[in-house]
Amino acid sequence: MRKGGDGRLTNALDPQDQGPQDACGVFGVWAPGEDVAKLTYYGIFALQHRGQESAGIAVSNGRQILVYKDMGLVSQVFDEPTLEALKGHLAIGHCRYSTTGASTWHNAQPTFHPTAKGSIALAHNGNLTNTADLAQMVDDLASLDQELDLKVRKSEAATNDTSVVTALLANHPDSTVEERAMQLLPQVKGAFCFVWMDEDTLYAARDPQGIRPLVIGRLERGWVVASETAALDIVGASYIREVEPGEMVIVDEDGLRTRTFAEPEPKHCLFEFVYLARPDTIMTGKRVHSVRVEIGRRLARSFPADADLVIPVPESGTPSAIGYAEESGIPYGVGLVKNSYVGRTFIQPSQTIRQLGIRLKLNPLRDIIEGKRLVVVDDSIVRGNTQRALIRMLREAGAREVHVRISSPPVKWPCFYGIDFATRAELIANGLTNDEICRSIDADSLGYIDLEDLVDATEVAKDDLCRACFDGVYPVPLPEPQHLGKNLLEVSESVDTSALALSIDSVQVEAEGLATSLTGGGANDALDRP
User: Catalytic one among 24, 193, 415, 466?
Assistant: First the structure.
C-alpha cells in the first residue's frame, strides 16, 4: 500500500454533495506473444471513468499469477517498471468505485485466491443482491474436509462481494474452474460482469439480466473482454459482440468458446445511456453519443425555450446539448470550462475550499454568457446542490435567464446494481414537484425528459431495460434491508435491524423509504436551503 494512503483519495470536492458514482471497469486479455500487462493498462485506462478509487492488474505466465493493485487512478498506480515486471500471456484488470465494501487497499481488485490445483484472480463490475447468502456459503465451507487454506475468509481485510465470489470459485477440489463456475453462477444474484483467470485460461460471465455491459473483441493473436467497446478501440481490438446475458466465455489455447448458465432475461441499465458509459462506446448496437444527441432533440421538442444560447454542463451534458441546439435552432456554445483534474483530488478540501464549490470544477466564460438567455443541459439532478450552485454562478457571470434541461427523468429510487446514488431520502425529486425543484435551484424553467422518450431514444424495448432508479421497478428481487448496503460485510451482527421492513415482490419492488446506507435530510427542506 502506498505510504500515507489513508485519506488521500477523496471522492469529490465536497463528500456531502456527491453525484451518481460510476460502476467499475473490467478488462481481460488472452494473447500469447503480446505485452498483456500494457494492453490491460491501456484497457482499464480507457475505462477510468467507471471507477477512480483503485486499480489493479493480474498476469499469468502459465505457472503462476502475479497481482499488483493499489489505491488511486490507473496512471498513478502503474509505472513503466511495474508493468515490465508483469510478464505473461494472460491478464485481467480492474478500476474500482466501491459499491459493496469500503474503499480500501484490501478491497481493491483483482482479488486473488489459491485453489486446490493453482490459483485464480477475479475482477467484478456490478453489485450483488444476495451477498449475505453467498457469505454464508463461504462460512459453510468450514464443515468440509478442505484441501484449501481458506482462513482468509474470516479476515476483516476484504469486505466486498467480489472476495466472497472468488472464495467460492476457488473451492473446487473435485472439478475444474469452468465446472465450478457453471455450478456457482446460477446462484449469484444481482448485477455482475465477472472477468477471471487461472494460470492458463481467461473467463468472463454476465448476469442473466445483462444489467452492466460486457463485450468481446478480437486481436490478431488473441481475444479481449471489456466493460465497453472504447477499451477495445484503445488496444486495437475489433469489436465482435456483447457477452450475452447468462453467458460464460472461456478463452484458452483452443480458442474461444461459450456456455450458457442461465436463461437470458435482458434488463440493460438505462442509466448507462444517460451518464455512465463513454459517448464513444457502442451499447446494444448503438453509439452512446448518438443516443444522447437524440435525447437532446427530444428534450427540445418537449421543453422548448425562448433563449439565445444552449450550453452543456461538461462533459456528460455535451451530446444532449448538441441535440437540443440542432432541434431548437438555438446556437450551441461553450459557456463553461471544466478542470478535468479536480474531480479526483488527493487532499481533503478545507471549509474555505468547499466554499468555492463548483468553481473548482467549472468556470464560466463571462464574455459568452453575459446578457444571454441560456439553456443549460445536464445529465441528471440528484440532490440539487450542484445545480443550485451552478445557476448562482451563471447569474453572477451575467446570465439573464437560465433554463435547465435534464437528459434523464427525475431520479427517485436508489440503485442496488452497481451505481451509488444518494439514498432515497436525499433524492430531491422524491420530496418536491418539478416546479418546486425549479424554484429550489433558482432556474427560470426546468424540463426533464420523459421516461418513454428516453427509452425510445435508446431503440431498446422498454421491457429489456432496467429503469429502477426512475420508476422503482427492480428486475432482480431485493433481500431484506439488513442484507443490503455498501458496508454489509462490515456491519456488526449485533446491529438491530428489526425496525427495517420491506415487502419484496419478484416483479415490482415498492422501495418506499429505502435508505439502507445513509440517512439524509430529505428533499422536503430543499426550498429552505441557502
Answer: 24
